[in-house]
């Protein structure tokens, strides 16, 4: 066996975005030493620490981006850079939270309590949402920049805000459904 589970996309309730059975904080059975995905406590701890360090770097850099564009958000492009900084900051914070949760699971050897699950489920919800919104904002930013380069027609900030609002609402609902399906 190659260690790849070829049947997981066909599982009932699977929404197509990710495989929750391979996420340690959602499936602590991966910490079982007989599981083919188990890397060892030392490797897992190193991954969690490196991820936390990258989180600190990402949060620091995105804070700089936010501070730089904060005064210029009246124009569309600086506004989009500002929003990208915020969403990427949220992704970085979520990565740090996952590192901390992963270290807690390593320390407790994968035992989940109701309180731990009460932290893990919202952490995954906000992670899904932050990542999806960040990708969407990047796409909108690329489209806005492409239109600005190819035409002389300025893009109205209000149109961008409406598109972002609709997307945020839809992605919030989709992420909530994904987490709800898995947690139940």
Write the layout of secondary structure elements.
Layout: H1 41-69, H2 76-107, H3 114-150, H4 157-183
Question: Would you mind describing this structure in some detail?
Answer:
With 184 residues, this protein is an all-alpha fold. It is built from four helices and no strands. The chain has helices at 41-69, 76-107, 114-150, 157-183. The model is unreliable at 1-16 (pLDDT under 50).
Largest sheet, in brief, is: none
As residue ranges, the low-confidence spans are 1-16
Record field, number of beta strands: 0
Assembly state: single chain
Overall geometric form = elongated
The tally of helices reads 4
Quick take:
With 184 residues, this protein is mainly α. Helix content is 68%, strand content 0%.
């Amino acid at each position: 066996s190659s260690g790849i589970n070829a049947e997981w996309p066909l599982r009932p309730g699977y929404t197509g975005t990710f495989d929750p059975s391979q996420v340690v904080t959602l499936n602590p059975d991966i910490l079982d030493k007989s599981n083919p995905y188990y890397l060892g406590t030392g490797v897992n701890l190193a991954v969690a620490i490196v991820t936390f360090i990258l989180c600190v770097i990402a949060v620091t850099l995105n804070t700089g981006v936010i501070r730089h564009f904060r005064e210029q958000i009246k124009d569309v492009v600086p506004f989009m850079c500002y929003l990208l900084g915020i969403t990427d900051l949220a992704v970085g914070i979520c990565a740090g939270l996952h590192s901390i949760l992963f270290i807690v699971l390593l320390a407790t050897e994968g035992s989940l309590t109701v309180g731990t699950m009460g932290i893990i489920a919202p952490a995954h919800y906000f992670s899904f949402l932050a990542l999806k919104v960040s990708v969407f904002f990047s796409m909108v930013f690329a489209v806005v920049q492409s239109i600005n380069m190819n035409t002389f027609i300025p893009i109205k900030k209000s149109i961008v805000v409406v598109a972002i609002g609709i997307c945020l609402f839809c992605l919030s609902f989709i992420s909530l459904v994904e987490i709800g399906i898995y947690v139940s």
